[in-house]
UniProtKB/TrEMBL annotation:
Record's protein name: Adenosine 5'-phosphosulfate reductase
Record keywords: Coiled coil, Cytoplasm, Iron, Iron-sulfur, Metal-binding, Oxidoreductase
Similarity remark: Belongs to the PAPS reductase family. CysH subfamily.
Top-rank lineage group of the source organism: Bacteria
Gene giving rise to this polypeptide: cysH
Coiled-coil residue windows: 3-30
Amino acid sequence: MTVIQQERTAEELKALAEQAGRDLEDASALQILRWAAETFGKRFCVTSSMEDAVVAHLASRAMPGVDVVFLDTGYHFPETIGTRDAVEAVMDVNVITLTPRQTVAEQDAEYGPKLHDRDPDLCCRLRKVQPLEEGLKGYQAWATGLRRDESPTRANTPVVGWDEKRQKVKISPIARWSQEDVAAYVAEHGVLTNPLLMDGYASIGCAPCTRRVLEGEDARAGRWAGRAKTECGLHG
C-alpha cells in the first residue's frame, strides 16, 4: 500500500474532505477506510467509545496497527473498560487511552460533586471534548462510528466531511449502515461488543448519564434522558 504522508493546509484538507464525501458516498465502509489509510497514513486514527469494535475492526483490515483512540472519562461502566482491554488484546490495533486533565475527585473538588447532574455540558467538555482535542492534534483525519439512523441529529452525517472546529477530516465509514448491518458484520466477523448492548442499552456513554432504552425509542434516547441534551459535544 502506498501511503502519502504530506503536510496539507486546512484549506487543502477541507477541499479533500468535500471531494471525498462526494466521491465515496456510495463506497463500502472498507473502501472508505482504505482511502483514509492511503491518504493519511499514520496521520489517521479511529476513535471508539467501546460500544462495539466494528469501526476499529474495519480499520484494522484497511490499516493493520491503526491507532484507536479511547476517552477514559473516569465515569465509564466496567464493561466498557473491559471491552477496551479486550480490543487491545485481540485486534491488530494500537489502543491509545486519553484521560481528562483532572481526575473525578479533582473535578469534584473544584466544581462540586456530580457536575454531570448540574451542568452536563461542562462535564462533557472537561472530560470528553478537551481531552479529544488534545489527543487528535497529531492527526489530519479521524474516523468515528456515527450512523445516520441513530438519531435525527445525525441524519445528514457525511461519509467523509470537514470538522470545522478541529480543522480535520472526519470520516464516518458506516454512516449509511443500519443497526441490522452492524449486527450482521458483528456476527460475520466475531467482532467484540460491549456486554451492555445485550442488557437493554442501545447507546453507551458514561454511567451516570446513560440508561436502558424503552421499546420504540431511538438508540440515543438513553443518553441524558429527561434533558434536551442529545450530544456530548464531540460531534457538533
